[in-house]
Amino acid sequence: MKQFVLMLALALPISLNATEPWIIAHRGASHDAPENTLPAFELAWKQGADAIEGDFHLTKDGQIICIHDFDTKRVAGSKRIVKDSTLEQLRSLDAGQWFKPEFKGTRLPAFAEVAATVPDGKKFYIEVKCGPEIVPVLLKDLIKTGLDADQIVIISFNASVIREMKKQAPGFKAYWLSSFEKKSPLVPSMEQVLTTLRDIKADGFSSKADNRIDEAFISGIHKEGFSYHCWTVDDPSIGKRFLGMGTQSITTNKPALMRRALQQ
Fold first, then answer.
1. At what angle do helices 2-11 and 135-145 cross, to 10 degrees?
2. What is d(CA 171, CA 174) in angstroms, rounded to the nearest whole number?
3. Are 45 and 54 spatial neighbours (Cβ–Cβ below 8 Å)?
4. Residue 109: closest CA among 33, 194, 217, 8
5. Nearest to 129 by CA among 40, 69, 174
6. pLDDT tens digits for the chain (264 residues)?
7. Selection from 226, 119, 219, 68 nearest residue 162 by Cα
8. Could you give the angle at which helices 236-245 and 255-263 cross, rounded to 10 degrees?
9. Domain 20-263: assigned CATH number
10. In whole angstroms, how far apart are CA 121 and each of 7, 51, 65, 241?
């Protein structure tokens, strides 16, 4: 099965126009709809996003569900540990009422439901919030989506997830995520980032839009053959600054605002 998945990933058609930069909707249009839900993802496309980003965990029964936290307390009121719950148990919860009353009854979506919202020519950023145990299940589910290989980007703070994804299916893009410690200079440094990227065979690096990042940092990432991306940017002035320094995508909670600002 592993070899089949790998060969299929390599053989998937390449059809996207590689125009950059991309505006990525963080957990969907999460400023205007409850994060990581179908209303948020569907609204993101209406607001002109080039891609959606969602967070994914493996459930107790080996399914993949879209939620950021390791438990459901923040978005559903009652606390269930995601890895210790079944998909059915998690989907029985109301994940919209906390945001606004009109979203009452909104459910946590399964992976396939989120993937089904992705139009032709758009991208799907899949943030893995658990460990590499999700990779075999994720690859099987990706095959079922019918999406092209270049519509899919795997992202994770967990370097072992990226390493395992590139080992099993190198045809999919995979970016390592990292924020920076508050103290200066930047930790991890550019050299530390590059060492990790090489070790796990990542395609790129994505970081918080830290005000200490400069053009030299981003240029250094690019010079070594890796792409650079930033998050989570809701201030157009910050977005424009990072574009000027060479970021290849901007993740935002407000895709409509960012689209308008960058078109001016």
1. 40
2. 9
3. no
4. 33
5. 69
6. 434 344 344 333 333 334 456 999 999 999 999 999 999 999 999 999 999 999 999 999 999 999 999 999 999 999 999 999 999 999 999 999 999 999 999 999 999 999 999 999 999 999 999 999 999 999 999 999 999 999 999 999 999 999 999 999 999 999 999 999 998 899 999 999 999 999 999 999 999 999 999 999 999 999 999 999 999 999 999 999 999 999 999 999 999 999 999 887
7. 226
8. 60
9. 3.20.20.190
10. 23, 9, 24, 26
Query: Taking the CB of residue 184, how many other CB atoms lie within 10 A of it?
Result: 8
Q: SS3 for 127? A: strand
**Which amino acid would we find at residue 120?**
D
The structure's pTM equals: 0.92
Q: What six digits make up the tokens of 255?
A: 């895709």
Domain boundaries of the chain, sorted by first residue = 20-263
Are 177 and 207 in contact by the 8 Å Cβ rule? The answer is yes
Cα(96)–Cα(224) distance, rounded to whole angstroms?
Answer: 43
**Which residues are part of the catalytic machinery?**
26, 68
CB 28, CB 52: distance < 8 Å: yes
**SS3 label, residue 201:** coil
In tens, the pLDDT along 82-113 reads 999 999 999 999 999 999 999 999 999 999 99
